[in-house]
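Researcher: Structure prediction, please.
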Amino acid sequence: MSGDADGARPGTPRSEAPSAGPAGAVDPSEVVHDSSVVAEADADLTALSGITQADGLPHIGPFDLADLPADERERADFGALLIPRVDGTWLRLSGTGPLPALVVTDGTSTIELSVLAAPRGEGLWARIREDLRSALQEQDESHQAIERPGPRGPELHLPVVTEQGPTRARVVGVDGPRWFLCAVFTGEAATMPAAAPALEELLAATVVVRGSEPMPVREPLPLLPPDRRAAPVVEVPAPRAASEVITLGARGLFA
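Model: Predicted structure follows.
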């Protein structure tokens, strides 16, 4: 990630990271003599966490703060998101749409990251996929959202309109413990995921900081500059600026 951002920190858990699972959850380490009990406890913990990553898929990021990997990567603190430094990427905070978003580009592709509050033990991605499909049909019956498998589960490929005109987008949803992260790819990565390895690396190493305070479901989690001031953080260089993606919240889908 080009440029310096105050507040960057190595990939180590912060003091507010929870040290245990949800209240009342069984600790599998306490029942080491019965494998069936351990398996049942693990299932309970997964259900309570709200993580709904597809069965059989490897657990890749974004991660919850409680599961921050011991990779010693330096991450910039944007409040609800800890973003790793990845060479060849530029980023900026976008506050012009209905949702706060972090927009990152590699010059040919763009990813927009937004994170919402979610209910405990229940994911949002399945319902949001249905909302997106319905909204697209209402706008134009000839437009269709195509669902395809991805490394994190189902992805939606759909047409969107930006300030630069119509384009294609690939929407990736990740359900976490009391949070939902939406990643919208445009540019080459919308149709060829392998075209933007730097953006994929960034998403895979991103960490979500939900916090313990109660929030309404689908309420955006705050994104802040690392220096906690209103000044821009790292501007996208004009010669390499990619078209800013549409914020899907503009359709009222996250309200």
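Model: Residues 2-55, 229-255 have pLDDT under 50 and may be disordered.
Researcher: Thanks, that helps.
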